[in-house]
């Protein structure tokens, strides 16, 4: 059976050019070529083997992670990989590690919040990994409420130093990745106190461990917070705790690009918005959105290939059974996830553009788009990670019993991914940021201030608050204007209803707290509109390749109509559409599933994942699932011996006892 492509028939059915779709998925031919080359490099290197991860103890897993990171760094230098290539290498190694935080948060925090002088000093060390850093913000007692952090950084003018201190147990840093066992340095967020006054949260570079023997520096207590969910999974990461007992650092280790403390201890506030201290979080949320499509597409690739291999029922007169992918229920669960993976890819691309745009504006002292950038990164991070975590679990169920096996690749993917709903901002807390932004925008309607960017639609409130959908037949739901109008009207009406309900409260903040659940739903409706509109905008671009645009068109409308179906209550209760129009949307959705069906396997092939990266018996490229499931089963340590360890102590006596009782 080796060498046979069990999915060849599926691949032959495709009505588009997979190679062209690979370029669209990657973002450009260049991006495709880099990813393809680096993925193969990782797959062919035995050090990056990962198939036995679940069987390693925490210590073995951690040590193997250190080995992989060291080997990766060596290869990056030997092969002179540039920043993009090195990033892809870390991505395809696919093992959470301290390097994610070093490159993903420590370096960006210094770039964003350090002065030029500080960048020169610290980045040259960090870029060569002569120091390794993490991002130490969250504490045992506070994560979401950043303003509630307790760690203090008190300026001592006598010595020109800050004294970093953990005043209570709840002030201990708790969770930072890479902190527990690896980082030599951290960007520590603490309350800045000078001349007896508390100036709120600021970032400080603090050395934690000796560069000679790696032992913690005096008055620093540091360790790992313990084992996390799942075998393997995120346990390769040393999330840590950290306590300071009056640790002194030079004044120039406060990140001073925004605000400063002078030699005399005078606090010089920033002349730019103080929220820029949160800039690293905005950056990372943007990368997390782009990453959501990676995780979801991976799960969807596994579930789609396996659904084409797996057969149940439907055999007549000894014929073959039905592929489970042909059941409409399977399609109704799987294809919206396939569509979501593509949707998140394109909204991720757009968000990257938005982030670059706001960064350029900030450099030119234009802060006007910062609130929108914050709302978009927060809201889309929340929306895409929630949908991806739920989607991975749905893919596990789509694979039936075998999906529950570790070797399906899905349990570990879920365990690694699911904390994305919490880290970098709890997903509910983040949607509430969007809701605040929406309430402000609604309050300004009619004031002469024209909403722009992702809230531009609110400027058409007069129309959107009273319009009725013109859809008369199922195909009308393929009209971008009809879809956009329905999503815009729903989002606006939900936001306006919240604003109206809010205005009934004398105390606005009290009203906000009372209406939290409705506000989150309004925020989600707004974020879904963004994703749908960016997918539609993508279709307006010049996309070449045989049949590619047609497939993307189908996926775009599957995504939109699936959301419409899922949130039908919103669309009906806001009178944006009628029950008849909802039923027509459903008819159209079924028709789109039929059109996607012959292309499904090719659409996941377009992700161009190697078997190494997928690490899934069910998602193998060749579809040769059953013999490989057996191979994996035989590898399990329980099958090392025919009679298990413990038989003589614990099984035999029980069996014998039962036998004696039966004879009596
Ligand atoms: C490293 C990863 C690299 C790559 C990623 C790729 C793939 C991912 C794979 C693996 C990930 C690996 C590791 C994961 C790393 C996770 C690391 C962390 O979790 S770090 C810790 C993150 N912590 C949080 O996110 C905390 C969440 N809380 C907050 O952000 C804020 O406190 C808040 C809840 C948004 C604000 O609360 P509050 O209302 O109290 O606000 P403030 O008083 O502080 O401010 C009010 C004012 O400011 C505006 N605002 C808030 N945040 C921002 C911002 N970020 N930018 C701009 N403006 C902001 C807010 O809207 C208010 O505005 P106003 O109403 O006054 O106009
Ligand atoms: C795997 C992982 C890695 C992490 N890495 C890092 C790191 O590298 N560096 C770092 O500094 N931190 C890190 N963190 C911490 C992370 O950023 C926080 O856990 C996260 O911001 C959530 O904060 P919290 O834990 O305080 O949740 P809480 O705020 O305590 O949330 C608990 C519940 O309360 C609800 N809630 C909270 N506030 C409100 C509100 N205002 N309104 C309504 N509901 C509310 C939430 O929705 C949630 O349901 C990591 C966390 C994890 C899980």
UniProtKB/TrEMBL annotation:
<dbReference type="InterPro" id="IPR002655">
    <property type="entry name" value="Acyl-CoA_oxidase_C"/>
</dbReference>
<dbReference type="GO" id="GO:0003997">
    <property type="term" value="F:acyl-CoA oxidase activity"/>
</dbReference>
<dbReference type="InterPro" id="IPR006091">
    <property type="entry name" value="Acyl-CoA_Oxase/DH_mid-dom"/>
</dbReference>
<dbReference type="GO" id="GO:0001676">
    <property type="term" value="P:long-chain fatty acid metabolic process"/>
</dbReference>
<dbReference type="Pfam" id="PF01756">
    <property type="entry name" value="ACOX"/>
</dbReference>
<protein>
    <recommendedName>
        <fullName>Acyl-coenzyme A oxidase</fullName>
    </recommendedName>
</protein>
<keyword id="KW-0576">Peroxisome</keyword>
<dbReference type="GO" id="GO:0033540">
    <property type="term" value="P:fatty acid beta-oxidation using acyl-CoA oxidase"/>
</dbReference>
<feature type="domain" description="Acyl-CoA oxidase C-terminal">
    <location>
        <begin position="479"/>
        <end position="656"/>
    </location>
</feature>
<feature type="domain" description="Acyl-CoA oxidase/dehydrogenase middle">
    <location>
        <begin position="134"/>
        <end position="235"/>
    </location>
</feature>
<dbReference type="GO" id="GO:0055088">
    <property type="term" value="P:lipid homeostasis"/>
</dbReference>
<keyword id="KW-0274">FAD</keyword>
<dbReference type="GO" id="GO:0071949">
    <property type="term" value="F:FAD binding"/>
</dbReference>
<dbReference type="InterPro" id="IPR029320">
    <property type="entry name" value="Acyl-CoA_ox_N"/>
</dbReference>
<dbReference type="Pfam" id="PF22924">
    <property type="entry name" value="ACOX_C_alpha1"/>
</dbReference>
<dbReference type="InterPro" id="IPR012258">
    <property type="entry name" value="Acyl-CoA_oxidase"/>
</dbReference>
<keyword id="KW-0276">Fatty acid metabolism</keyword>
<dbReference type="GO" id="GO:0005777">
    <property type="term" value="C:peroxisome"/>
</dbReference>
<keyword id="KW-0285">Flavoprotein</keyword>
<dbReference type="InterPro" id="IPR055060">
    <property type="entry name" value="ACOX_C_alpha1"/>
</dbReference>
<dbReference type="Pfam" id="PF14749">
    <property type="entry name" value="Acyl-CoA_ox_N"/>
</dbReference>
<dbReference type="GO" id="GO:0005504">
    <property type="term" value="F:fatty acid binding"/>
</dbReference>
<dbReference type="Pfam" id="PF02770">
    <property type="entry name" value="Acyl-CoA_dh_M"/>
</dbReference>
<keyword id="KW-0560">Oxidoreductase</keyword>
<feature type="domain" description="Acyl-CoA oxidase C-alpha1">
    <location>
        <begin position="278"/>
        <end position="439"/>
    </location>
</feature>
<feature type="domain" description="Acyl-coenzyme A oxidase N-terminal">
    <location>
        <begin position="17"/>
        <end position="132"/>
    </location>
</feature>
<keyword id="KW-0443">Lipid metabolism</keyword>
<comment type="similarity">
    <text>Belongs to the acyl-CoA oxidase family.</text>
</comment>
């Amino acid at each position: 059976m080796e060498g046979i492509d069990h999915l060849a028939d599926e691949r032959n059915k495709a009505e588009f050019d997979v190679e062209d779709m690979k370029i669209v998925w990657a973002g450009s031919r260049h991006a495709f070529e880099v990813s393809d080359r680096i993925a193969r490099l990782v797959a062919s290197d035995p050090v990056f083997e990962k198939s036995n991860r679940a069987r390693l103890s925490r210590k073995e897993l951690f040590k193997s992670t250190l080995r992989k990171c060291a080997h990766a760094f060596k290869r990056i230098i030997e092969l002179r990989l540039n920043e993009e290539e090195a990033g892809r290498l870390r991505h395809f190694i696919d093992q959470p590690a301290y390097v994610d935080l070093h490159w993903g948060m420590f370096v960006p925090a210094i770039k964003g919040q350090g002065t030029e002088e500080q960048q020169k000093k610290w980045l040259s060390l960090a870029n060569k990994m002569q120091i390794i850093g993490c991002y130490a913000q969250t504490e045992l007692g506070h994560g979401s409420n950043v303003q509630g952090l307790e760690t203090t950084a008190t300026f001592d003018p006598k010595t020109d130093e800050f004294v970093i201190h953990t005043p209570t147990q709840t002030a201990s840093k708790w969770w930072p990745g890479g902190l527990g066992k690896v980082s030599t340095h951290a960007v520590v967020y603490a309350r800045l106190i000078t001349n007896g006054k508390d100036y709120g949260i600021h970032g400080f570079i603090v050395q934690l461990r000796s560069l000679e023997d790696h032992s913690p520096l005096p008055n620093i207590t540091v360790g790992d917070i313990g084992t996390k969910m799942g075998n393997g999974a995120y346990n390769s990461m040393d999330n840590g705790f950290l306590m300071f007992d009056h640790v002194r650092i030079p004044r120039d280790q406060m990140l001073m690009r925004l605000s400063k403390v002078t030699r005399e201890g005078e606090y010089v506030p920033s002349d730019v918005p103080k929220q820029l201290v949160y800039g690293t979080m905005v950056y990372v949320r943007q990368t997390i959105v782009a990453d959501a499509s990676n995780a979801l597409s991976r799960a969807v690739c596994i579930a789609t290939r396996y659904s084409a291999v797996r057969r149940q029922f439907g055999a007549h007169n000894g014929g073959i059974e039905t592929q489970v992918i042909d059941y409409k229920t399977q399609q109704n669960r799987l294809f919206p996830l396939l569509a979501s993976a593509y949707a998140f890819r394109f909204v991720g691309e757009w968000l990257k553009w938005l982030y670059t745009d706001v960064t350029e504006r900030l450099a030119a002292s234009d802060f006007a788009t910062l609130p929108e950038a914050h709302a978009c990164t927060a809201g889309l991070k929340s929306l895409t990670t929630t949908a991806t975590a739920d989607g991975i679990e749905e893919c596990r169920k789509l694979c039936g019993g075998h999906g529950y096996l570790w070797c399906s690749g899905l349990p570990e993917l879920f365990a690694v991914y699911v904390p994305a709903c919490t880290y970098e901002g709890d997903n509910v807390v983040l949607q509430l940021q969007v809701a605040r932004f929406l309430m402000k925008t609604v309050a300004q309607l009619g004031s002469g201030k024209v909403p722009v960017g992702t809230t531009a639609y609110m400027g058409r409130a007069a129309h959107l608050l009273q319009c009725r959908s013109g859809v008369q037949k199922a195909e009308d739901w393929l009209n971008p204007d009809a879809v956009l109008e329905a999503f815009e009207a729903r989002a606006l009406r939900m936001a306006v209803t919240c604003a109206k309900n809010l205005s009934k409260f004398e105390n606005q903040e009290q009203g906000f707290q009372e209406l939290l659940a409705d506000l989150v739903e309004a925020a989600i409706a707004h974020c879904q509109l963004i994703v749908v509109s960016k997918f539609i905008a993508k279709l307006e671009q010049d996309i070449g390749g045989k049949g590619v645009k047609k497939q993307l068109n189908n996926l775009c409308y599957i995504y939109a109509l699936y959301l419409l179906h899922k949130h039908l209550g919103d669309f009906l209760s806001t009178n944006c559409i009628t029950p008849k129009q909802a039923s027509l949307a459903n008819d159209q959705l079924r028709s789109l599933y039929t059109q996607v069906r012959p292309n499904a396997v090719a659409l996941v092939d377009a992700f161009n994942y190697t078997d190494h990266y997928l690490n899934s018996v069910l998602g193998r490229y060749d579809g040769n699932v059953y013999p490989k499931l057996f191979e994996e089963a035989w590898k399990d340590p329980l099958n090392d011996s025919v009679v298990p360890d413990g038989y003589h102590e614990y099984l035999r006596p029980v069996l014998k006892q039962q036998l004696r009782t039966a004879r009596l």
